[in-house]
């Protein structure tokens, strides 16, 4: 399998790629990213080039923010990238600053990532010495500083507008959108926010061009993706795969080292719907997972073997979201807790009673999904809803 992010690049690469940015117009660089069709790797899969173009066109001071909160269950690929290739993320941010014309950027890092925070600070110091950061970068008129900020350790601050509130010293509550951060973000100014993995692809696309990038992956799902694998709640590792060039069953066999007949289901990410063996033949890419009523999310894949009681994990996931709810809106604050309590009462119920209770839980979950203010409340129950669908399919014989 071809790789991009998990291979070192020559230290001279940074100065070469930055020089290339200064030699070309911002419009040309944005065109390159748009033609690469790089989808954001933080969960929302928004086209990166379009976002950059929008921020570039704003007539105001602008900020760059790298979201390295990575608070979601089963996800640890940003930690891996920062640990091994922090300079790629910073290169991506510097390129963004040249393109959208920004002079200040922030990396918002999970407070538990102490080692990675030190690595980032060291790279920033070294880059300042080498004139890649600070005043007059590479003897041009461009100035750009990066501040490394420790998160407050809450999953909800990984939500981009909540993150902005924290940097501004406010309560970690998601803002209503629109306006979106590229219109009105940090301190009311246009702000470009991308995830660690997204920024890391940028130097490659600029240096080698969009056609090179499109050699990886499949149409409209170009490039590679870092996946974090967990089996029955035990971390296996981080792997780089080409989007659309690998099937779900191959991930299970080649990376989780499991036989398909021993696997009950997989969860493509904590906010996604479960996939079952009849779907293991689908490709791993944004489009295929969406068609199959789930989502790729951040790439934190959890595999459940036949020995594992999936219901317990569904409870764990829900408990996580209950604890992480910011409490701002009622459906999420009260509703998630109520669903959790009702689920805890299910274990000893027999068929008819189980069916009745699951129908109530399903109805309540759909209302929460529809009426919650942000993505946390809207997606917290995706795994549960797919689990209930499976129980319905099995005619309510038992929880599994
Ligand atoms: S959905 Fe949940 S996390 Fe989002 S604003 Fe409402 S209470 Fe807060």
Walk me through this protein's architecture.
The longest helix has 24 residues. This protein has three domains: 204 residues, Rossmann fold (3-Layer(aba) Sandwich), CATH 3.40.50; 85 residues, Ubiquitin-like (UB roll), CATH 3.10.20; 84 residues, de novo design (two linked rop proteins). A four-stranded parallel β-sheet has the order 3-2-1-4, with helices on both faces. It is built from 15 helices and ten strands. Strand 5 and strand 6 form a beta hairpin. With 400 residues, it is an alpha/beta fold. The chain starts with 11 loop residues before the first helix and ends in a 7-residue tail after the last helix. The site of iron/sulfur cluster (SF4) has 14 residues, from helix 12 and helix 14.
Q: Let me know the largest β-sheet.
A: 4 strands, parallel
Number of domains: 3
Distance from N terminus to C terminus (CA atoms, Å) equals 35 Å
- Taking strands numbered 1, 2, ... along the chain, how are they ordered across the largest sheet? 3-2-1-4
H/E element string? HHHEHEHEHEHHEEEEHEHEHHHHH
Number of contiguous helices: 15
Radius of gyration based on Cα positions: 22 Å
- The secondary-structure class comes to alpha/beta
What kind of oligomer do you see?
A: single chain
- What is the CATH class designation of the largest domain? Alpha Beta
Helix content bin: 40-55%
- CATH homologous superfamily label of the largest domain: NADH-ubiquinone oxidoreductase 51kDa subunit
Averaged pLDDT: 95
Which small compounds were modeled alongside the protein?
A: iron/sulfur cluster
């Amino acid at each position: 399998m071809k790789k991009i992010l998990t291979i070192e690049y020559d230290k001279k690469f940074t100065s070469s790629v930055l020089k290339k940015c200064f030699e070309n117009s911002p419009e040309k660089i944005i065109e390159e990213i748009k033609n690469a069709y790089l989808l954001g790797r933080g969960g929302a899969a928004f086209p990166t080039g379009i976002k950059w173009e929008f921020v570039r066109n704003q007539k105001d001071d602008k900020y760059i923010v790298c979201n390295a909160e990575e608070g979601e269950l089963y996800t640890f690929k940003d930690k891996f990238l920062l640990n091994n290739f922090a300079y790629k993320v910073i290169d991506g941010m510097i390129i963004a600053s040249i393109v959208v014309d920004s002079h200040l950027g922030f990396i918002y890092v999970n407070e538990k990532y102490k080692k990675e925070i030190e690595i980032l600070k060291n790279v920033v110091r070294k880059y300042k010495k080498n004139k890649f950061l600070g005043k007059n970068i590479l003897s041009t008129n461009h100035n750009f500083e990066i501040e490394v900020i420790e998160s407050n350790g809450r999953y909800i601050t990984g939500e981009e507008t909540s993150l902005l509130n924290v940097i501004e010293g406010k309560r970690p509550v998601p803002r209503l959108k629109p306006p979106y951060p590229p219109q009105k973000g940090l301190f009311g100014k246009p702000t470009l926010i991308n995830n660690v993995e997204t920024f890391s692809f940028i130097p490659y696309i600029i240096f080698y061009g969009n056609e090179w990038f499109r050699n990886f992956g499949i149409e409209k799902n170009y490039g590679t993706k870092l996946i974090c694998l967990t089996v029955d709640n035990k971390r296996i590792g981080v792997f780089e795969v080409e989007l659309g060039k690998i099937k779900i069953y191959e991930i299970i066999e080649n990376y989780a080292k499991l036989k398909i007949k021993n696997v009950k289901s997989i969860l493509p990410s904590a906010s996604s719907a479960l996939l079952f063996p009849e779907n293991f033949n689908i490709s791993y890419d944004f489009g295929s997972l969406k068609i199959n009523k789930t989502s790729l999310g951040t790439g934190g894949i959890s595999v459940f073997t036949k020995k594992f009681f999936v219901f317990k994990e569904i409870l764990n996931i829900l408990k996580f979201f209950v604890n992480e709810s910011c409490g701002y809106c009622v459906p999420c604050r009260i509703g998630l807790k109520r669903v959790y309590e009702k689920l805890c009462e299910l274990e000893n119920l027999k068929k008819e009673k189980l069916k009745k209770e699951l129908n109530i839980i399903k109805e309540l979950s759909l209302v929460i999904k529809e009426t919650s203010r942000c993505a946390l409340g809207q997606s917290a129950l995706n795994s549960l809803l797919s689990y209930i669908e499976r129980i319905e399919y099995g005619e309510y014989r038992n929880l599994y």
